Amino acid sequence: MAVPVTPLLAVDCVVLDAADRILLIRRKNPPFAGDLALPGGFVEIGETVEDACRREVHEETGVRLTSLTLVGVYSDPKRDPRGHTCSVAFLSRTGIAGLKPGDDAAAADWFAHDKALSLAFDHAIILRDSLRLIKPGNGSRD
């Protein structure tokens, strides 16, 4: 049986610190080189999406995550100019403020989420959906 041609699978993560700042990277490579983005990347063969999320965040920022909350799946065929990519997005919290950018990240920093941020891909939508999960009254807070 022929292997079907399917979209690529990626992960993205909204990471909040104790002050509710958002962890963002500055992309080193195209597409969107130089733009701000959520940490994330492609899932490797044999890896769960949760493990991929933790790995990508650590590789790009130096932050190690434990608990993850599923935000959603983002599958618009046009979300990535390189081709159809589906992303499983997560939300996590960390008390760690020190960062060590690496891998695909030229830089990493914490940003207040009350600012209007211009983000790569569909990351503004993922961020919006994540922040809705932690709004008081939603009953969901890590």
What do you see in this structure?
This protein is α+β, with helices and mostly antiparallel strands and 142 residues long. It has a single domain, classed as Alpha-Beta Complex (Nucleoside Triphosphate Pyrophosphohydrolase), CATH 3.90.79.10. The chain is built from 2 helices and 7 strands; from the N terminus they run E-E-E-E-H-E-E-E-H. The strands form 2 sheets. The chain has a 4-stranded mixed beta sheet, sandwiched between helices. Strands 3-2-7 form a 3-stranded antiparallel beta sheet, with no helix packed on it. Strand 2 and strand 3 form a beta hairpin. The longest helix has 13 residues, at 49-61.
Secondary structure blueprint with pairings:
Blueprint: E1 8-16, E2 21-27, E3 36-37, E4 40-42, H1 49-61, E5 69-74, E6 85-93, E7 105-112, H2 123-134
Parallel strand pairs: 1-6
Antiparallel strand pairs: 1-4, 2-3, 2-7, 5-6
Q: CATH topology, anyone? A: Nucleoside Triphosphate Pyrophosphohydrolase
How far apart the termini lie comes to 44 Å
Q: Any guess at the CATH architecture?
A: Alpha-Beta Complex
Spatial strand sequence of the major β-sheet: 4-1-6-5
Could you name the CATH class?
Alpha Beta
Number of domains: 1
Poorly predicted runs of 5 or more residues:
none
The SSE string, one letter per element, is: EEEEHEEEH
Per CATH, the superfamily is: Nucleoside Triphosphate Pyrophosphohydrolase
pLDDT averaged residue by residue = 93
Using only C-alpha atoms, the radius of gyration works out to 15 Å
| General shape | globular
Number of strands: 7
Beta-strand percent range:
25-35%
Which structural category fits the helices and strands? alpha+beta
Tell me the number of helical segments per DSSP (H or I, 4 or more residues long).
2
Question: What does the largest sheet look like?
Answer: 4 strands, mixed
